[in-house]
Target: Aspartate--tRNA ligase, cytoplasmic
Amino acid sequence: MSSEPQNLSSSTSAPEQSGENISKKAAKKEAAKLEKLRRKQEQEEAARKTSSLSLEDESFSRNYGDVTLTELQSTEDPSAGKWREAVEGKKWTDLSHLVEETVGSEVLIRGRVNTNRPVSNKKGFLVLRQSGFTVQCVATQSEETKVGVNFIKYLKQLSNESFVDVMGVVVLPKEEVKGTTQQVEIQVRKVYCVNSALPKLPLLVEDASRSEKEMEAGLSGANQDTRLNNRVIDLRTPANQAIFRIQGQVQKAFREFLDSKDFVEIHTPKLMAGSSEGGSAVFRLDYKGQPACLAQSPQ
Model:
């Protein structure tokens, strides 16, 4: 009698355990299906972001880059390249004209990279130099201005003394800009490298500009031999540029004064009794029965 209920109990518990196993398997299967769906959605989202980023970079890439020879030669075709398209019809602005009255206006400027100071992956600073005048240019990553990450990367790799064109908006910074002649700032929108300098130059204008006292104080500088061996760079220092400007103004004053007195400026050939130094071919002639040569300078 007692064995029958026990058998009944065991027979009823078996279907219950079987049902529980089936429900667990179904739950695991459903969870795996949901996990697979979640991963697929994540992959699709990542692909969508990558696709949008590539499209963004493609549109932003027209705002920076190296100027090609074809663009420089194609003076009448605005579709010759992104640089030609950007500068066509624009008016060039001298750095000396960048004053407070120009704040808010968009300008197109050209100069050499005096200093390049990257701050982060989203921001970079350039100081451009033109005929002794300098201005600070700031590039900040922004979708509104179409300045992307690759734009900042390109800005960072521009070497000193490279010749670049910059388009941007003139702003008045909150704090005084130190180290530049112009007290306004350029918020960069586009930058193009016309001619790239070597990444490592034998002489920097900043070093060549320092005096002996500054070098004695521990700042890096350049001795006379280094400056003379790299004269083409040494002539770009503010001191040498100032000398040339003074010489030019003195000559201009003399010329204007003599012109006002009806003088006529002439350039006469200079004759020498013998050939000049250098050993190069000279123009010989007979001057009143004596041999003479036109003077020439091998320098």
